[in-house]
Amino acid sequence: MMISISKDKAIGSASVRTSKKISRFLNVNLKPFNITTEQWSVLRTLSETDHISQKELSELADKDQATLTKILDLLEKHQFVKRVSNPADRRSFLITITDQGEALAKKVAPFIEEIFVKIINGIDEQSIEIYQEVLLSLERNIDLLLDEENN
């Protein structure tokens, strides 16, 4: 007799638990670089798309404004990013990665890649592709549901 597990437990709880474990593992491994996974995601985003408004960065890094402000304050304190006046809008700033931030991103990116190689160890390529497709589908569905709620 097979016991059925609720979708809440099988998908919701499992996703949250896995996400937390990945974050915890990454945070432990990022300690020597003096940054957290949250800070890394912002720094990585800036290393890919530099000189953008805080609003754009918030969308690209998938962080709310309040959280992003705190992260930027810390990254700026360590001189990894800086806020520069936005010539198009004097009330806002553009966020730019510094040479120090760029150097850190170049060091951390391959390190993070190695960590994910360890995390996916023993999982075949086809399963990883299916997993990515499922994640994208879940994300799209959630975005659609959020759009419906906001309209």
Provide a descriptive summary of the structure in words.
With 151 residues, the protein is mainly alpha-helical. It has two domains: 92 residues, Winged helix-like DNA-binding domain superfamily/Winged helix DNA-binding domain (Arc Repressor Mutant, subunit A), CATH 1.10.10.10; 29 residues. It is built from six helices and three strands. It has a three-stranded antiparallel sheet with strand order 1-3-2. Helix 1 packs across helix 5 and helix 2 crosses helix 5. The protein is globular. The N and C termini lie far apart (44 Å).
Brief synopsis:
By secondary structure, this protein is mainly alpha-helical. It has helices at 7-30, 37-48, 54-60, 65-77, 99-119, 125-150; strands spanning 52-53, 81-86, 89-97. Helix 1 (7-30) crosses helix 5 (99-119), helix 2 crosses helix 4 and helix 2 (37-48) crosses helix 5.
